[in-house]
Amino acid sequence: MITGEMKMFDYEFSTGSKSDITKKKATQLNTKIYGAPTPPMYPLENLKDLPVMIVCGRNDKLCQPGDYMKLKEFLEKQNSLLAFIETDYGHLGICNPIPSQEKERLEAAKKKGKKVVVDEFNYQVIYDKIAQ
Known about the structure:
Oligomer: single chain
Number of domains: 3
């Protein structure tokens, strides 16, 4: 939603490449799926009778706070927002947060002054061996 518009998945944007060949393939894929070279807008007004809960993360690099706050405001205006939960997780952390026992190990390591990195892609906590 970098453009400020709520559109369906854009295959051209997702390639991240400036290659004309890649853009051409992505545009063809958009056309095949949506019937047009660019994705259509989400018809958010159709959510009027559907209760929606938004769960989002301040550290999400794919859907940033400015984006989900616009959605929240829109849903509030049409009385569709059931709940809004904002966390400190990133994109994958919301889908699969760190298990509770791993959180306990993380907090214990932090208290001992160890440097700790959370690997969101593999859903695990990595402890810095040097800081032990």
